[in-house]
């Protein structure tokens, strides 16, 4: 490539020639061919334009109205529960249960428990005992993207 930009012109000419050839072939109705032709034309015509974004404010103060809205959301009560496992049994077998009966669950011993908030899985964890009370140590938190996928 020479310093006067001659090599760049050759590249642009080759891209334009390829776009024309593909445009001639693309008359069959394949949408991908049309997209490729448009992309090649844009590449030959000067390339992509840089995206423009607003400047981020690192420590943008929260307005009084925003704080009030946030306080309203933060005060909504939710129910958090831990699920050891599940089992499906018939009503006949349910009615036969009494003290000392054992119900087999679908979990293997040592497998993490499910942490549910209002019935939605948000994490997995293990049981811990602190000051004679049970607790749960979160071992895996479900990402927001995964939680949204499960809602659909």
Automatic annotation (TrEMBL):
SUPFAM superfamilies: Surface presentation of antigens (SPOA). It comes from the Bacteria. Transmembrane segments: none annotated. GO terms for cellular component: bacterial-type flagellum basal body; plasma membrane. Residues 1-12 have a biased composition (Acidic residues). GO terms for molecular function: cytoskeletal motor activity. Its main location: membrane. Keywords: Bacterial flagellum, Cell membrane, Cell projection, Chemotaxis, Cilium, Flagellar rotation, Flagellum, Membrane. Pfam families: FliMN_C. Gene3D superfamilies: SpoA-like. GO terms for biological process: bacterial-type flagellum-dependent cell motility; chemotaxis. FliN is one of three proteins (FliG, FliN, FliM) that form the rotor-mounted switch complex (C ring), located at the base of the basal body. This complex interacts with the CheY and CheZ chemotaxis proteins, in addition to contacting components of the motor that determine the direction of flagellar rotation. Belongs to the FliN/MopA/SpaO family. This is Flagellar motor switch protein FliN.
